[in-house]
Amino acid sequence: MSQFFQIHPENPQKRLIRQAVEIIKQGGVVVYPTDSAYALGCHLGDKAAMERIQRIRQLDSKHNFTLVCRDLSEIAIYAKLGNSVFRFIKAHTPGAYTYILNATTEVPRRLMHPKRRTIGIRVPDNAIALALAEELGEPIMSTSLILPGEDLPLTDPYDIRDLLQSQVDLIIDGGYCGMDATTVVDLTEDEVQIVREGAGPVDSF
């Protein structure tokens, strides 16, 4: 049976954030809100927790997880950033964008694209997600909460509890999240490439 925390979407309670991060550190799988949709998250180095998420979503081993970071300086630890890429991300962060970037050696190989050695990274514009990443001190390994056979993510934390309370360790109720996926932007080449248009606007690109 999972725990269920009601965390304020604008002023997250520090005590609950600390408890949530302890669950992540101990190998837990958590459901938490972002600026696009609810996500499943776990510790970056925890292969068993990652495999639990794969089972919940029925993902194969080729599915690319996203690293949810707290800020630009943390992105630079896990991805190679040239000056133009850095400026582009800075102009659109935080926000509902996932950036495909060339990974550094800090990224576990199992998380990289097997051929391209790339990783998806984002900084969400959501106070709870940022507080979790800040308290954790490293990125949260994440994927959108879209259940098998569904096209859209779950949006209601009470529905999530009914469906997943026996499969995850913590569900964070951070209010209504929305159901749009992030806009995915490939920044591995000189030219900006929009891979998927989603919640993040692209008119300023």
What does this structure look like?
The structure is a single chain. This protein is α/β, with parallel strands linked by helices. The protein has a single domain (3-196), classed as DHBP synthase. It contains six helices and ten strands. A ten-stranded mixed beta sheet has the order 1-8-2-3-7-4-6-5-9-10, with helices on both faces. Helix 1 crosses helix 5. The mean pLDDT is 94.
Q: CATH homologous superfamily?
A: DHBP synthase
Number of domains: 1
Q: C-alpha Rg, in Å?
A: 16 Å
Query: Rough shape?
Result: globular
Helix content: 25-40%
Low-confidence stretches: none
Text of the CATH class: Alpha Beta
- Which quaternary structure do these chains form? single chain
Question: How many β-strand runs?
Answer: 10
Q: How much is the average pLDDT?
A: 94
Total number of helices: 6
Secondary-structure element order, N to C: EHEEHEHHEEHEHEEE
- CATH architectural type: Alpha-Beta Complex
* Distance from first to last alpha carbon: 44 Å
**CATH fold descriptor:** DHBP synthase
